[in-house]
Design brief:
It comes from Flaviaesturariibacter amylovorans. The protein has about 350 residues and is α/β, with parallel strands linked by helices. It has 11 helices and 19 strands. It has a 7-stranded mixed sheet, with helices on one face. A 6-stranded mixed sheet has the order 1-2-3-4-5-6, with no helix packed on it.
C-alpha cells in the first residue's frame, strides 16, 4: 500500500489519517493553498501555512484552522509532515509527507520564478512527487516578469495618452496582489473590484504590506473613474461594473495569453502572459530537482507532460483529480469572488 492513495475524496494518507487538498469534506485536511479548488469548505480540521489561514477564513467562513510555518515539523499519527514554499501565491506550500523511510511531496500549484511576495519555490527531495501540469506543453515559456511588468506600464501610458482607463483582468487571489507594485509605480491610484478588495484586506489585516487600493463603489467620484488603472476579476467582464470606466482598454493577465489568438477571442485589447504557475521549463526543472523516482501529473496537460518525463527516464503517470485552474480566462463567480452585495453589483 503506497503512503499516498489517490481516492475518491482526494489524496489520502492512510497511515496519518489525513487528506491533502480534498475535494469532499473529510475529518482532517492539509491544504497547500487557499484557492478554492484546493481549499474547500466542510472538513472538520484544517492545517495550512500561517499565511493561508486569513484567506481561508475569508473564503470558507468559520472552521477549525491550524497554521504552521515553512519547515516546521508536525507529526500526525506518527507520520512526519512539513510545509515548504511553492511560490504560487501568498501562503502556498508544498507538503512533504514521510513515513517509514518513504517520502512524498505534494506540490499543489507552484511557480519557479520568485515574484517577490509569494516566497521562492523550494525543491524538496523525495521518492514520489505529485505535480500540477497546468501549462505542461513546450509552447508555454514565460518571459521574465520584469519584462511583462514593463509592457503593462507602457500600455497604461499609451491608454492615458488616448484618454482611456486601463482595466487589468486578473484573478483576485494571487495575480491581483502581484500587479500592485508595478502598477503603483505608474499610477497614484489603483481602483479595484470588491472581490479583489476583499482578498486585499484579508491580507493587509493579517499584516502583509501591499500598496494601497481604492474599492469602487456607487459613491466613487466619477473623476476617479476617468483614465483610471483598474484591477477586476474575469467575472466582471461585460458587466455594468466595468462599463462605468468607458472609454477603457481591457488587458487580460493569464498564462493562456501566451497562445496567439486568445486575446482576440476574449475580445480584449491586450493580453499579458503573466502566470502564477510554472511554465514548461519550470515544471521540468522542478520535477528533476526533487530527484523523485516517481512523478504523478495532475490537472493540466497531464498526458503530454507525463509522457515527456517517461521518455526522459522518469517513471511518470497522469492522475485524474478534481482540481481546476485559477488561470481560467473566465473564472466562475464562486471561484473568483464572494457573493456580491448590492453595492458591488451596481
Amino acid at each position: 500500500m503506497p503512503l499516498i492513495e489517490f481516492s475518491e475524496k482526494g489524496l489520502y494518507c492512510r497511515a496519518g489519517g489525513f487528506y491533502i487538498d480534498p475535494w469532499r469534506p473529510v475529518e482532517r485536511a492539509l491544504i497547500t493553498h487557499a484557492h478554492s479548488d484546493h481549499s474547500r469548505p466542510g472538513s472538520k480540521y484544517y492545517l495550512a501555512h500561517h499565511d493561508s489561514i486569513p484567506i481561508m477564513q475569508a473564503r470558507l467562513g468559520p472552521h477549525q484552522f491550524q497554521g504552521t510555518a515553512y519547515g516546521e515539523t508536525t507529526y500526525i499519527n506518527g507520520v512526519r509532515v512539513s510545509f515548504h514554499p511553492a511560490g504560487h501565491i501568498i501562503g502556498s506550500a508544498q507538503i512533504r509527507v514521510e513515513y517509514e523511510g518513504e517520502v512524498w511531496v505534494l506540490s499543489g500549484d507552484y511557480k519557479t520564478e520568485n515574484d517577490g511576495i509569494s516566497g521562492a519555490f523550494e525543491p524538496v527531495k523525495c521518492h514520489h512527487f505529485v505535480t500540477e501540469s497546468t501549462f505542461g506543453l513546450p509552447i508555454y515559456n514565460w518571459k521574465p516578469q520584469a519584462e511583462i511588468y514593463r509592457s503593462m506600464q507602457e500600455w497604461i501610458a499609451k491608454n492615458k495618452a488616448l484618454g482611456k482607463s486601463s482595466i487589468f483582468i486578473a484573478y483576485s487571489l494571487g495575480k491581483a496582489q502581484r500587479l500592485l507594485q508595478p502598477l503603483s509605480e505608474v499610477s497614484e491610484r489603483i481602483l479595484v473590484h470588491g472581490a479583489v478588495y476583499n482578498m486585499h484586506m484579508a491580507l493587509v489585516n493579517a499584516g502583509h504590506k501591499l500598496p494601497p487600493v481604492e474599492r469602487v463603489t456607487p459613491d466613487t467620484p466619477k473623476e476617479h473613474l476617468k483614465g483610471a488603472v483598474v484591477i477586476a476579476p474575469g467575472s466582471a467582464e461585460g458587466t455594468s461594473w466595468i462599463r462605468r470606466f468607458a472609454p477603457a482598454a481591457i488587458g487580460i493577465c493569464s498564462g493562456w495569453m501566451q497562445v496567439r489568438g486568445n486575446t482576440r477571442r476574449k475580445n480584449a485589447d491586450a493580453g499579458f502572459a503573466l502566470s502564477d504557475h510554472a511554465d514548461w521549463k519550470g515544471l521540468i526543472e522542478a520535477c528533476t530537482a526533487t530527484g523523485a523516482e516517481h512523478v504523478y501529473a495532475t490537472h493540466g496537460f497531464q498526458a503530454a507532460f507525463s509522457r515527456y518525463l517517461t521518455e526522459k527516464g522518469i517513471d511518470a503517470r497522469e492522475v485524474i483529480t478534481e482540481y481546476g485552474s485559477d488561470e481560467d480566462a473566465g473564472p466562475t463567480p464562486t471561484e473568483e469572488e464572494p457573493p456580491q452585495t448590492n453595492e458591488e453589483a451596481s
